[in-house]
Amino acid sequence: MKYTNNINKPSWVPPNGRIGPQEPAVGSSARPEGRYHHAFRTLRLIQSYLKSREVELTMNGITCTKKLERGCPQGSQLGPTLWKVTMSAIGKIQLEESAKVVIYADDNALLVGAARPPTAFKRIEGYLEELKKWAKEYKLEFSASKTQMMAIKGGLKPNYTVRFGTQQNADTIRPSESVKYLGVILDPRQSYQEHIKQLKDKSIGMFNRLRRMTSANWGMGRIAARIIYKAVFLPRITYAAEIWTHGCQLKKSIKILGRIQRAPLLAITSAYKTASTNCLSAVAGVLPLDLEIRRVALKMRCKNNEINHEQYTKGLDALLNKWQEKYDATDKGEWTKYMIPNVKA
Questions:
Q1: What sequence ranges are listed for the domain Reverse transcriptase (predicted)?
Q2: Alpha carbons 293 and 203: distance in angstroms, whole number
């Protein structure tokens, strides 16, 4: 769900009432009661910021004054706190067990489940109406034209519309075959083909541009190429890998990822352009990109305590065995296979 007006300008009135503390009596040791139970002085400081604020502009001898009643500027230390207080009010909306609201900064996602499409559409419109009431309270407004919608299951074709609210004259939302949320392109089949294709379009030129920036003459050294590969290229490709790692196991995706990785491998190894991509990864000593993405996803699962270190080690060993199988199965690069028979080494 997207907003039409500037999300950095929510009204101060509702947050000011939510974080306001009750001043304890003189000599009392009771803890002040507030929405977030912060220190009393801190809450008073925030309240002083949200009340009786004015901005003054003087130009050509003329002074204009305007009272400030809204704003959540990016870059300020208080801004994230005010926005958090504002967005947390969405949690008051009553949702059924089949519905959930995901809030991350200004990117809001509404997930609704139902046995039949008409039931889902009715629930979506009801929840959107409640969200519109919340936005009106904070002087914000949603944009139906910028809001994306997609059916995840059921094979529902995108030829339907849903109103943004329960009003008869409410704007309509048109579905799409894929949506982008927090940098990841989602699709109903969960193949993440569109996401991988977008990575290909953006990443191939990126590495070549970085290569040209490293030297005033031509090219760059292999050490610099490896540093750029590990510090710039891989973090961008493996972003949110734990979400779309299953898409890396499709043959079509593996081919696309191999093309993405080819330019960095040529720079790292200084090999001829006719060299096999399968051999380039072995010479460079790096995992093929599809296996590298799966490794990063495995590492994140271990970091989030979804698996223990022993399971991570076994999973990593399985990826290395998979690499060896792919390396041996390719009929290209026989001389490289003779020189490097074992990729684990």
A1: 1-186
A2: 15
The answer to whether the pTM exceeds 0.85 is no
Q: Which residues are paired to 57 by β-bridges?
A: 64
pLDDT at 258 over 60: yes
Residue 275 structure tokens: 């060299």
Distance CA 154, CA 202 (A): 32
Domain residue limits, the chain: 80-176, 184-339
Return the number of other C-beta atoms located less than 10 Å from residue 298's C-beta. Answer: 23
- Whether 222 and 173 have beta carbons less than 8 Å apart is answered as no
The CA–CA distances, whole Å, from 307 to 241, 301, 302, 313 equal 16, 6, 5, 10
**CA 249 to chain CA mean position, Å:** 22
pLDDT at position 218 is 58
Pairwise CA distance, residues 79 & 94, whole Å: 27
- In the chain, the largest separation of any two C-alpha atoms, in whole Å, equals 86
CA-to-CA distance for 335 and 345, rounded, in angstroms? 17
Query: Token match 């495995």: residue?
Result: 298
Nearest to 245 by CA among 330, 315, 337, 147: 315
